[in-house]
User: What shape does this take?
Amino acid sequence: MSNEQVEHNPPRSGDPLFRYIEEQYQALQQEPVLYQWMVTYLNPDKRLMGGGVFLVFMVIAIAMGTSGKEIATQSFVIFSCFAVVMGAYVWFLICANKIYHYHITSKGIYYTFQDDIPEIAFTIMRGVGWFGCIACVLAAGLLGPAAFIGAGASALLNN
Assistant: This one.
């Protein structure tokens, strides 16, 4: 089959179809962009889910704090901090806004999208990764070489 025949009669199924689609998509991306624009999609569930997670953990913190036991204050502080961290996690990472980039070329239109995650989230995770590496190297003196497994896992957070 010649290239002209394939252009007018694309394969119907299987691996040749996927190769054909990939080739056409790459050709579309190689074309010069005539017009492009960006759309930010604000997640409508962000407030409900982030606030809901925060409220659930705050209710647990208040229930633990009013239990009348000696450890009540400590558990209230721990669950309150956990409520803030988990609420921020859901707000910024799980329900992140999306940024869509649309590109019009002479062959067609294509788009890309990415999550709108603030840079501070990546900085915090790199800090947690470095802290984990240091903690595991120090723990290697107590536990032996098995602690380096955690150091390797923490090093993956630094990327």
Q: What stands out?
A: The radius of gyration is 25 Å. Helices lie at 3-8, 14-30, 46-65, 72-94, 119-143, 147-156. DSSP finds six helices and three strands in the chain.
